[in-house]
Write a structure and sequence with these properties.
Layout (H helix, E strand, L loop, with lengths): L6 H15 L4 H8 L3 H8 L7 H11 L3 H5 L9 H12 L3 H25 L1
């Protein structure tokens, strides 16, 4: 999981924004995510960066995708035209590459299904 270049501060700002949007105190987020209040404070103040496991816990508690915490460009809406262009380009790749792409997509869908189930 890769952070943007200004990662600690950026992540902290995003975390605080989503926490406030949900009207959670740091204590409430800590209770929901099973992460200490002091650690959430360190994240929000840019003093620490979470690992992937913690990102998942926070995103589940906030009912968002973990990508939203680490990437300001993440948007739930996708330009389907761009997606179609990518698919057209992929079709021109060798069969071995297509098999890898298919496996990655399948794993992503499986992971997304698990994440969605955890949010319910």
């Amino acid at each position: 999981m890769k952070f943007q270049e200004n990662s600690s501060t950026f992540f902290g700002e995003r975390l605080k924004k989503f926490r406030i949007d949900k009207k959670f105190s740091q204590r409430q987020l800590a209770d929901k995510s099973k992460i200490t209040v002091s650690q959430i404070s360190r994240y929000e103040n840019g003093l620490s960066k979470p690992n992937g496991f913690v990102l998942q816990r926070l995103s589940i508690a906030l009912e968002i995708r973990y990508e939203e915490l680490i990437d300001s460009k993440f948007n739930d809406e996708i330009n389907l035209e761009d997606f179609d262009i990518s698919i057209q380009k992929a079709r021109k790749l060798p069969k071995s590459s297509l098999l890898i792409i298919k496996e990655v997509i399948d794993k992503f869908i499986e992971s997304d299904n698990i994440h969605s189930a955890l949010l319910k």
